[in-house]
Specification:
163 residues, alpha+beta, five-stranded antiparallel sheet, two-stranded antiparallel ribbon, binds zinc ion, zinc ion binding, FBP C-terminal treble-clef zinc-finger, metal-binding
Length: 163
């Protein structure tokens, strides 16, 4: 995605108040991000343990979604999969996140939920964690495919939040 300024990130949020968007903690490495290698910017709020954020470029404009992690976690002994980057991991590395929907639906308490990497680091993981059954293929092609699929799933999630 294109590089965004701090102000663009804060203004991108569609499902939280302006006050929340102004006050949220940006990723620690915000100044050094490699934007070209990000289908989405995802991070957990270092100051608010259950909160996380996703920012994606929809093509028209960047859209930020505030999400909340479930306070119960899965066991490290179970297998789980992030539904955005589709990386299989142990249960404790995947969390159920919910996002408040925009508009009247959100005001009525409506949310959308999905399982995602607990650290919201999906953009890294599509590049670094290649499933065994794809490892004999051209790595650049596999990463490009996984990245494109990740982007599509994130956009679907954003769509569900804004519907
Ligand atoms: Zn993921």
């Amino acid at each position: 995605m294109h590089a965004l300024t701090e102000q663009q990130v804060r203004r991108s949020f569609v499902n939280c108040s302006q006050g929340e968007a102004k006050g949220l903690a940006l990723p620690k490495d915000f100044a050094d991000l490699d934007w070209a290698a990000l289908e989405l910017l995802g991070w957990r709020d270092p100051k608010a343990p259950l909160r996380g954020y996703l920012v994606v470029d929809t093509g028209e404009r960047p859209v930020g979604i505030a999400v909340r992690a479930a306070d119960t976690r899965m066991s490290s002994r179970t297998a789980a999969m992030c539904l955005l980057c589709q990386t299989a991991q142990t249960g404790d590395a995947v969390s159920l996140f919910t996002a408040k929907r925009t508009g009247a639906a959100g005001r009525n308490g409506n949310t959308v939920g999905t399982y995602m990497c607990a650290d919201l680091g999906c953009a890294d993981r599509v590049r670094t964690e290649i499933p065994p059954w794809l490892q004999d293929r051209n790595p650049d092609e596999v990463v490009a495919e996984r990245a494109a699929e990740l982007r599509e799933r994130v956009l679907n999630f954003v769509e569900a939040v804004r519907r």
